[in-house]
Every structure is written in C-alpha cells, then in structure tokens.
C-alpha cells in the first residue's frame, strides 16, 4: 500500500510526540509526582461539564501519556485512552499499573479508533491541543458518533482557532495562518510547550479548523450540540506573555480574543 502524504505527516508527528513524552513526563507543567500522589490532572472546565462520572464508560481521545484518562478512572469511570505515540501509551500503561487503576490504553491514530475499539461509551472526551493534528474533521466526527452510546455525551475543550492563526516562534506573535486553512502548516523549533529550555527539535505538521468546521463535523455525524462556549482565558500558560488572573487562569493582556472553547454534544 502506498503511503499518503498525510501518513508521512502523521509519522513525523508521532516521532516528535515520542520525544515529547520523555520531556513532558519530567516537566513542572505535568507535575507527574504530584499526580502519582493523588493530584488530578483535570481542569475546572471538563470537571464541571462532565460532573459525576462514577460507573460511566469513558473514551479519551489523544490522551498523551494518560494522566487525564487515569484521573477520570480515579473518579470512578471505566476509562480507555487512545494516542498516536507508542511511548505515550507505554508510560500510560506503566502509570496505570503503578497506581493500581483499571484504565486501558490503545496506540493508534485517533482517526483509526474504530478499527481498534469496537465497544461504545457513555462519554467521549478530548482536550487541549487535539484537532490541529487532523487534516479533516469529518472522519473524526463520524468516529466519535460510532463510539458513543445512544444518548451518550461528547465533550471537548480546546484552544480557540484564533490562537492558531499566530506564529509564536518570533519574539512577538505574528498573524500568519488562516482561520480556516486546508494547507498543512509545518513548524520546526527547539523545545516544547511544557519545557521551552529543552534542546529537542519539534517537527510538527498541523491543520487549522474554524469553529464552523468543528460544529458541522459533529452535527453531520448525528450529534446534537448542547452548547458552544468561548473563553478569553486558558488553564495552561502555553502562549507568550500571558498574565495569571485571580482564579489562576491565564489571559492575554488586552483580552481581545478568546483562548479556548468548549463543546458539549449528545448522540441522538
């Protein structure tokens, strides 16, 4: 079978994420020791949106090295995490064993989830820095609908498309990319968002998706949108020159545009 251009992009991203796992697991951002000692990695938005997950089945898409998957598990959900990075899945499985939890993990491209997982779930969850790795959201929306029980909940919280219009590699962010852009965006830079001092070279291929594309991918797949909210704050300090506010969230100095959005949807 001939490899498509997208496959070569995915392979490059996988190699980068395998390297990132080693750096992120030691970073202050991911607070792995605190996590092992019981600290949840989940943020306020997702906890408030999904509420009591005890006894529910939950599929976590693009789970990195599994902290959120395991945090849901600690809250009583039966969790399954999916990620492209085999190093990420390896560490997730090791954490699951060390913490004596009962999550399961699958290494695959998120778009191929239905080839690897046949069961359906009460909740499908994904968060922060996920859809930009996907060239087309229609197969993503279809896969989410396939993996949800009837009446089940899909929830995502993600960086806002406006955030991805800027190039942050120079000193001052420059608006460079389209709000909706079909062409792939290639970036190569030193360090990662969790450790800017790291010497690793990140080589990444990504795509920009406007909110209409996200909503249409989900509704066309048969999901009913319960709400879409946009916020001018982020729980993560991942962009240059953000300022921490009283509630511990990070905002731009001028608050001119939203930093994150959340969508909750139900399978009809």
Automatic annotation (TrEMBL):
<dbReference type="InterPro" id="IPR029063">
    <property type="entry name" value="SAM-dependent_MTases_sf"/>
</dbReference>
<dbReference type="GO" id="GO:0008757">
    <property type="term" value="F:S-adenosylmethionine-dependent methyltransferase activity"/>
</dbReference>
<dbReference type="InterPro" id="IPR013216">
    <property type="entry name" value="Methyltransf_11"/>
</dbReference>
<protein>
    <submittedName>
        <fullName>Type 12 methyltransferase</fullName>
    </submittedName>
</protein>
<dbReference type="GO" id="GO:0032259">
    <property type="term" value="P:methylation"/>
</dbReference>
<keyword id="KW-0808">Transferase</keyword>
<feature type="domain" description="Methyltransferase type 11">
    <location>
        <begin position="60"/>
        <end position="155"/>
    </location>
</feature>
<keyword id="KW-0489">Methyltransferase</keyword>
<dbReference type="Pfam" id="PF08241">
    <property type="entry name" value="Methyltransf_11"/>
</dbReference>
